[in-house]
Design brief:
44% of the residues lie in helices and 17% in strands. With 179 residues, it is an alpha/beta fold. Helix 6 packs parallel to helix 7. It starts with a strand and ends in a 14-residue tail after the last helix. The C terminus is likely disordered.
Length: 179
């Protein structure tokens, strides 16, 4: 029985599309939702910029770890606000969210680690991110999660938002008439 759903969210333009599916699925299953967003470790270019242009205090804080705690908390708040402002929910999705985790690391690794940590029954991820809308069926994160997961994985098929809506504006238009 599926009672805990882990959503791997990238906060890209397909997030609204994923939330529509998550809202419906979580309501039908009466499941709680745990959200995870991965933040890539500081790259070489960013490290070089920090070394060249930042104070010694900032250098010490930023270069001593693969992430900055304040940045992760800011992103966690952004994820929560995205869900709070989601107005396409027919099922009060925000009330089902039990935890929002923002963690440093590669997306697939973070998703798989968090799924095991919380005892998720299902992982929900998009079939690919915006960088993969070049015709590939699966993006690298979806493929790796599918290959390595010990629990069921549900892929939400992503589509080019410009083709989906006839333009490039996001978020999705509301299904509700707001007069």
């Amino acid at each position: 029985m599926i009672k805990k759903i882990l959503l791997g969210a990238d906060l890209g333009p397909f997030t609204s599309h994923m939330l529509i599916h998550l809202d419906s699925l979580a309501a039908r299953l009466d499941a709680s939702v745990h959200v995870v967003h991965a933040v890539s470790p500081l790259g070489e270019l960013a490290s070089a910029v920090v070394r060249s242009h930042c104070s010694e205090h900032v250098k010490k804080e930023v270069l001593a770890s693969t992430h900055v705690t304040g940045l992760l908390e800011t992103i966690r708040q952004e994820v929560y606000e995205t869900f709070s402002n989601f107005d396409y929910s027919d099922n009060n999705l925000i009330s089902r969210i039990k935890e929002v985790t923002v963690a440093p690391g590669t997306p697939a690794s973070v998703i798989l680690f968090e799924a095991e940590r919380i005892g998720a029954d299902l992982i929900l991820v998009g079939s690919h991110g915006t960088e993969s809308i070049d015709g590939r069926i699966l993006g690298s994160v979806a493929a790796k999660v599918l290959q390595l997961s010990k629990i069921p994985v549900m892929l939400v098929p992503m589509m080019d938002p410009a083709n989906m809506l006839g333009n490039t504006h996001f978020p999705l238009p509301s299904r509700h008439n707001k007069g």
